[in-house]
Amino acid sequence: MIFNWNDLWLYLFGLLGTIYILTIVFTLIVVILENRSPQKTISWILVLILLPIIGLIFYSVFGQSYRKQKMFSLKGLGDLKWLQKLSQNQKGELEKSKLLKDERIHEKKNVMTLLLSNSKALLTGQNRVKVLNDGEETFNEIYNALRKANEHIHLEYYIIEDGELASELHEILIDRAKAGVEIRIIYDGVGSWKLSQDYIGSLRSVGVKIHAFLPVRFPILTSRINYRNHRKIIVIDGKTAFVGGLNFADRYKNGIPEIGIWRDTHLKIVGEAASSLQIVFLIDWYFVRQEVLLDEKYRPNFKVKERCLIQIVSSGADSDWASILQAYFSAIASAKQNVYISSPYFMPNGSILMALKTAAMSGIDVRVLIPEKSDSAMTFYGTLSYIEELLEAGVKIYFYKAGFNHSKIMMVDGIISTVGTANMDIRSFEQNFEVNALVYDEKVTMELRERFLNDLEQSDLIDLKTWQKRPKSQKIKESLARIFTPLL
Question: How far apart are CA 286 and CA 76, in angstroms?
Fold first, then answer.
């Protein structure tokens, strides 16, 4: 009998082809049974059918739904029963609370109740807030506050990148650690990929506890790359805190040559809400280190004389609910006069898109500010794909021209505002670990609004008829980006 190599190769190719087809079919079934949004489900189906090999790789990296798989358990924290109890008590007493004396604030009670329900976001009243409008102002405030730390510093950032800003941070942390201050740092394993081992090692050598969130050795080969800690939190002695859009990378202060100066927004909070940001950090620390740090010394419930209502809301792949998405939707739906939004990456899901269009068509003044230039081509064209339908509904869209506007803010009716890390996009709503401050205060909201209106003066209002005449090649790029951006 003569051995036929051709028959063997045909058999092997046939077997591999059958296994491959079965894998594709099985993956398609999994995608369908996950009951995600129709947009995301259809996007994955198209990618798996049209680009099968690439599609399988993409799905293994980007496609898994960790919210349903539960990335980690909080059982080691006793399920935070004390936090659950406090939030339940606040919900029951909210109607009669002295915090809601202002009728305009009382009108936003549903937003407060929602956040107490979906993320146990406690309502805090005794806070002092300072709005920080650029990198120079923000980092000066942060460094000055860090130098005054006496007990502990908790710092959690998406990007810490070697450079001028990181060097000054390093110098301050070394000094404070030598003075006996407890320091804990969480940095994102992908966002801070370039952070040198020398930087990390020198901090550890003086007692700083610094660890990566979901570290990845080979980003392209792991699904963890798709679930990143995008939070920017600093808590000092449990009394002073910072939250917003700026990372420790020099471009956040100096800008990018091809785009221009970096425009961003951050908040400095002194008071009760610092403890709420502390809770978010401590839960993340437990996830990273399996170490419980819920001692009273980390929750001093520090109060100031000033009054400013704040809820700190967090969301991520570990959450039962898309808390920040729901907060945005509820706030927009509550609008009676105006909704002003600034977001560097604007790719809303169906519910936010409908809320904005409905508000505009109801006569509410809805304005959205996006950068004219972006640091990401895919997200830029994805953002552009939403402009025409929003313009048709009466939403006013502006292109910011004085650099790169990275602010992630929203103001509703001059009384409620949000500043934080979440972009108005699907990734922030469904995948990233994010944190925002919801502020129910006329003074803070009007300050943010004034800066927003100043930004509009450095922007171009987009005209619908002119926009519809844009090149067909751009429309194709927009359509392709809209298909793929929900997957990335």
Answer: 8
Residue 226: pLDDT band with limits 50, 70, 90 = low
Q: Are 261 and 403 in contact (CB under 8 A)?
A: yes
Active site residue 413: yes
Among 412, 404, 407, 396, residue whose Cα is nearest residue 444 = 412
Look at the alpha carbons of 100, 106, 109, 112 in this order and tell me if their dihedral is positive or negative: negative
Residue 152 a catalytic site member: no
- Check 40, 152, 232, 477 and give the catalytic one: 232
Same domain, 290 and 380: no
230 is catalytic: yes
Residues 393 and 454 in one domain: yes
User: Could you tell me the two tokens for 179?
Assistant: 């003075």
CB 281 within 8 Å of CB 154: yes
| Residue 408 annotated as catalytic | yes
Residue 48 placed within a domain: yes
pLDDT reported for residue 232: 97
> Of residues 239, 406, 441, 455, which has the active-site annotation?
406
CATH code, 231? 3.30.870.10
| Model pLDDT, residue 75 | 46
Of residues 22 and 200, more confidently modeled: 200
Q: Which of 40, 108, 230, 268 is catalytic?
A: 230
Q: 139 with 268, same domain?
A: yes
Of these residues, 284, 413, 425, 455, which one is catalytic? 413
**Domain shared by 271 and 328, yes or no:** no
Average pLDDT on 397-425 reads: 96
Helix (H, G, I), strand (E, B) or coil at 219: helix
What is the per-residue pLDDT for 95?
76
Low-confidence winner among 95-104, 212-221, 247-256 (lowest mean pLDDT): 212-221
Which residue out of 152, 408, 425, 477 is catalytically annotated?
408
Residues 160 and 293 in one domain: yes
Same domain, yes or no, for 197 and 244?
yes
How many domains are contained in the chain? 3
Domain that holds residue 327: 323-487
What is the tens place of the pLDDT at every residue in 94-132?
Answer: 877 777 888 888 889 999 999 999 989 999 999 999 999
Is 345 domain-assigned?
Answer: yes
Task: Report whether 154 contacts 333 (CB < 8 A).
Answer: no
Active-site residue, selected from the candidate residues 237, 284, 318, 455 = 237
Residue 320 appears among annotated catalytic residues: no
Task: Name the residue with tokens 């005209």.
Answer: 463
For residues 379 and 302, membership in a common domain is answered with no
Q: How far is CA 427 from CA 83, 265, 399, in A?
A: 27, 20, 22
Whole-number pLDDT of residue 102: 84
Query: Is 97 a member of any domain?
Result: no
The pLDDT score that the predictor gives to residue 101 is: 80
Does 253 share its domain with 375? no
Determine the average pLDDT of the residues in 11-21: 64
Does the pLDDT at position 57 exceed 60?
A: no
Domain assignment present for 110: no
